[in-house]
Amino acid sequence: MAGRSSDLDMGATVWMIASTALVFLMVPGLGYFYSGMVRSKNAVSLVFLCMMALAVVTVQWVGFGYSLALSETSGSGFIGNMQHWGFLDVGYAAHPNAATVPGIVFAVYQCMFAGLTPGLALGGAAERIRVLPVLVYTFVWTTVVYDPIAYWVWAPGGWLARLGVLDFAGGCAVETASGFAALAFYAVLGKRRGFGSEKFGPHNHLNILLGFAFLFFGWFGFNAGGASLTSGRAGIAFMTTNVAGAVAGIVWVALGFWQQRRFSSFHFCSGAVAGMVCVTPAASYVSTWAAVPMGCAAGVCCFYAVEASLRLGIDDCIDVFAVHGVGGVLGLLLTGVFADARVIGLDGTHAAGGAINGHARQLAIQLAAAAAAAAWSFGVSYAVLRAMDAVPVFRFR
């Protein structure tokens, strides 16, 4: 039934293709963003690693990753089957998650999400890693961390999906997973040489601003690409992304000025990213006004998470854990507060909403999802990193 031409919508298909291109732009954007935050000698390697991560994940995704992460026929609540290995039967027939779009379009759109996520995690090990081990790790990590979490949340048979989790665009599989994987990188690799005795800081603010601009631009496709155009939910996701990023950026700049008595473009970029991270799981589940308190919360919580990391001596030079890990968990919890059944129901989807609809139980479900994604990502990432680091050819530093 899903494969009939009468079920497919050309407008939705074109929008998802355009959104795929927008999310692709986030990959070099992430590389440039990271490159400006490290010393100049490591700048090119981070852009290269982000692009190579996308290439490695694309091969994995076509081979078997898509089938593991988004299988619609698996009877397991934990992981997909191999029905679509090599993209078998991925073509015109639609996936249940995007019933008006050809399956191949949905698959390549999701490939961009999978390719971006390990690049985010690499920021936690910036300036300490060798290329070959990182590329092998990217392939393994996507298989054993990203794919299972994506299946739990987004696949029709996933255990968190059955539980009723609300995670529109990647609070679990992208943000929380990458943040806690970055923390695992630090736990295994330790600090950079000279950390604490030498001065480390951004070397190129123009690269940071350029990379941030690509990230902000691409995030509209990231959050709104899978939402309905005709019901207006894509427009809501577009606007909540913009508002949360703007509010969090302003809050972070204000907190930085209060501490240092100067305005910083770096502060604005970090804050805006934190705001968009926070609103990602809620993007088309909440009304536009809810993006304001979510952006405020992200700006404050992630700012002080960065401060706490520095005081604890954690060498996360890109602040991946503080922004994506903390911001992702915060966004999942706030989705449980602000999710609005009226907004979700615009395209005919039924949901009880969050605490504002009197459905406080949603908070417990969101907490369970955040805890499961964080624990799985950190635990499995740590185990894989330790195992690989014990083999001389795969030693990371």
TrEMBL record:
InterPro entries: Ammonium/urea_transptr, Ammonium_transpt, Ammonium_transpt_CS, NH4_transpt_AmtB-like_dom. It is a multi-pass membrane protein. Its main location: membrane. The chain crosses the membrane at residues 12-34, 46-69, 104-122, 134-154, 166-188, 208-229, 235-258, 265-283, 289-306, 318-339, 363-385. The keyword Ubl conjugation does not apply. It comes from the Eukaryota. It is found in: Cell membrane; Membrane. Gene3D superfamilies: Ammonium transporter AmtB like domains (1.10.3430.10). One of its GO terms (molecular function) is ammonium channel activity. Residues 14-395 form the Ammonium transporter AmtB-like domain. It holds the Pfam family Ammonium_transp. Belongs to the ammonia transporter channel (TC 1.A.11.2) family. This is Ammonium transporter. It comes from Coemansia thaxteri.
